[in-house]
Amino acid sequence: MKVFRLILAGLLAFATLTATAQTHSHMEKMQKMSELGTGAAFDREGRLWIAYKDGPYVALQSSADFGRSFGPVRHVNSAPEQVAADNESRPKVAIGRDGEIFVTWTQPLARPYTGFIRFARSTDGGKSFAAPLTVHANRDEIAHRFDAIAVDGAGRIFVSWIDKRDVAAAEARKQPYAGAAVYYAVSTDHGATFRGDYKIADQSCECCRIAMSATPDGKMLALWRHVFPPNARDHALAWLGADGTATGFQRATFDDWRIDACPHHGPGASVAPDGTLHMVWFNVREGKPTVSVGRWKDGKLLAQRPLDDPRAQHADIIALDNNEIVVAWKSFDGQQTRLSAMLSHDGGKTWQTRQVARTGRDSDQPHLLQHAGRAYVLWRTEAEGFQLFPLAKEAA
User: Fold this and answer.
1) Is the CB of residue 291 less than 8 Å from the CB of residue 315?
2) Which of 42, 97, 272, 348 would disulfide-bridge 371, Cβ 3.0–4.6 Å?
3) How does pLDDT run across 103-114, given as a tens digit for each residue?
4) CA of 127: how far to CAs of 54, 74, 93, 147, in Å?
5) Domain ranges, residue 205
6) pLDDT at residue 345 in the model
7) Residue 3: other Cβ atoms inside 10 A
8) Average pLDDT for residues 269-295, to the nearest whole number?
9) For residue 37, what are the contacts with CB-CB under 8 A and spacing of at least 6?
10) Cβ neighbourhood burial of 92 (10 Å; 0-12, 13-18, 19+)
11) For the chain, what is the domain count?
């Protein structure tokens, strides 16, 4: 199948660009076997919520002591169904303005690389969940995958995803269509219903996660890997309106990596209180695999620098209220996978790097969270389980 060849080509291309043959073997193994994908969020009271796959269910747990212990497992969906839980497509959890708990996941369908975006909500502190609903109106057996969720300051819920309905339509017309498309839906009634399907852009990458971040002026920003003609896999951004109108997208990175495949390596984004977009992304620059961190404002990429680790993979980023920026990532050194972080206390101008943890087994991507002005990184590993690490200035 064409989709299979694209995904396989992306995995092989990404593996080819890593540092050693041992690294190649490790990464291919992780891509095939990992179902450790986990979503996480803090509520206002500082309770940590995590969502992950538990067989044919999405499981939810909470911790009142910053991850040292967790409460009982609750199933979000009462009826069993397929649940995606790889690193780029994992269950997500978000907290509503009034304390609601929102969970999304991708439900794989019978045909390979197809799926539906599912959503469930709890209005009683996670004790019970309403029956899951499918976010998008389109119910074709095509790819609706790689969901992302974010809640804005007004409590509106934005869910975006990668969608291939336009690919199918183009193929029916015997016309070319590069990549996929990015769509979104919005709920203004605390998740009871969603309006959509609203298209953000055509020609997105097929298998990279989308990053969303609420902005200080009440908007929602989306950042994704785009296919710029003829086949440059850089990144684009747009602001999403709750009424379904998205701004025309703008190019956000300019590495000009030309490859006819998807690298399974989406970006991270966080908008600071001053409106600056801080982002982290993987590309190949001048033939060298590189994870970069940069600042974007007023239509311009203001700064870009590589992370202090040539093996960095799957980085995340968060901007705090005190001009502090935190980046976290994992990397494989041939023996172990390491969790690392870079911290900036001047809005991303200068950085300090620290080692956080390591594991000898499989692991999820790291996910950055914030509570009470402090950054934390959640890292789930096969051997050590769920781990939450505080990342603060005094610990740098």
Assistant:
1) yes
2) 42
3) 999 999 999 999
4) 17, 8, 15, 24
5) 2-395
6) 95
7) 18
8) 95
9) 52, 53, 84, 85, 86, 87, 88, 89, 90, 91, 364, 365
10) buried
11) 1
